[in-house]
Amino acid sequence: MNKTKIVTVAKVLPQFSCETKDIIPFVNEWLKGQDERFRRKVVKIFEGAAVDKRYGIMPIEEVFTSTSFEEKNRIYARESIKLGVEVLREALENVDWSPDSIDYIITVSCTGIMIPSLDAYLINELGLRQDIIRLPVTEMGCAAGVSGLIYARNFLKSNPNKRIALVAVESPTATFQLDDFSMANMVSAAIFGDGAACVLLSSEEEAKGPAIIGEEMYHFRNATHLMGFDLVNTGLKMILDPAVPETIANFFPDVVHPFLQKYGSDIERVDHLIFHPGGRKIVQTVEELFGALGKNIDDTREVLRLYGNMSSVTVLYVLQRFMERNPATGEQGMVLSFGPGFSAQRVLLEW
């Protein structure tokens, strides 16, 4: 079987940014017609979200301005193309690959609607080959960064000497609902930010980087209500059930141990936990579970603090931190993400 190597990970941030403390006045203004206790509670959610700063495809004033779904989606499409081009170009430059050497392109996004999908624009902008294989991944939410790695490995393990670009671009700020005063909207507004990442993978013998030695999806039964979007007239309305951290905790052993065992490993052998920071509560839940096993998820917490939850992109930012550190040969890392479905997606890496 061909080895799939992760050759590089690049990240790019949108042009606008805002610290959480500077968002609070906008939140207060937005909620001034609401019950005072509710307003104070929401401000506390923002202050306690463990996110210091986030980036956005539009300035904060625009986020809190009432616009149509059409207008927000237009900004999403325009900025996604810009970010996608920039991050793919940066990744290619990192390893000196020419754009026409890519055999397969996977694009990941769930925070807007584009037909044709982002990959079509990247092919034109960067001069990718006309016979390139395209796979847009659009409805897998926060887990989709790991889904992309899984799809890439499935292609590469049966195709020697091939190259894949996985490009994830997300703009949760474009989904913010000004007229939705549900707790799900408050929590998501407090944790989400925008960003872009690109992973280049290869099945070439001479490729450098950690090898993907195992990958698997795990689907929770009867849990479609836990997470997702409702498509309403004003856009994509967040569904976020408070039971998510508890569900993760309950199924955690089933998600982690059989997977590692299947690929001849176990939690003692795993040196690095590359976990998607869904939000403060999910990070705490997983930290307690992994902490009991003698592991830390400091990088996950740090990515959440610096950028917020950028949906599918976030776990790739965590992965990029490990790639920069260049772990020792033989060390293992487990990439883990949860998303709508409800599902857990896992990838086992070995340096």
Give the key terms.
single chain; 11 helices; globular; two-stranded antiparallel sheet; nine-stranded mixed beta sheet
Entry summary:
39% of the residues lie in helices and 25% in strands.
If you had to describe this structure to a student in words, what would you say it looks like?
The chain folds into 2 domains: 4-202, 3-Layer(aba) Sandwich (Peroxisomal Thiolase, Chain A, domain 1), CATH 3.40.47; 211-350, 3-Layer(aba) Sandwich (Peroxisomal Thiolase, Chain A, domain 1), CATH 3.40.47. It is built from 11 helices and 13 strands. It has helices spanning 20-30, 36-47, 60-63, 69-95, 118-126, 144-156, 183-191, 244-262, 280-291, 298-307, 314-325, and strands spanning 4-12, 16-19, 53-56, 104-108, 133-137, 163-170, 195-202, 211-219, 227-232, 235-240, 270-275, 332-339, 343-350. The chain has a 9-stranded mixed sheet with strand order 5-4-6-7-1-8-13-12-11, with helices on both faces. Strand 12 and strand 13 form a beta hairpin.
Please identify, by name, the CATH architecture of the largest domain. 3-Layer(aba) Sandwich
Order of neighbouring strands in the sheet with most strands: 5-4-6-7-1-8-13-12-11
CATH superfamily of the largest domain: Thiolase/Chalcone synthase
- pLDDT < 50 runs, ≥5 residues: none
Span between termini: 17 Å
Instruction: Using the coordinates above, name the CATH class of the largest domain.
Output: Alpha Beta
CATH topology of the largest domain: Peroxisomal Thiolase, Chain A, domain 1
Query: What Rg, in angstroms, do the CA atoms define?
Result: 20 Å
How many H/I helical runs?
A: 11
Amount of beta strand: 15-25%
Percentage of residues in helical conformation: 25-40%
**What is the arithmetic mean of pLDDT?**
92
Number of domains: 2
Order of helices and strands: EEHHEHHEHEHEHEEEEHEHHHEE
Sum up the overall morphology in one term.
Answer: globular
Please report the total strand number as a whole number: 13
The secondary-structure class comes to alpha+beta
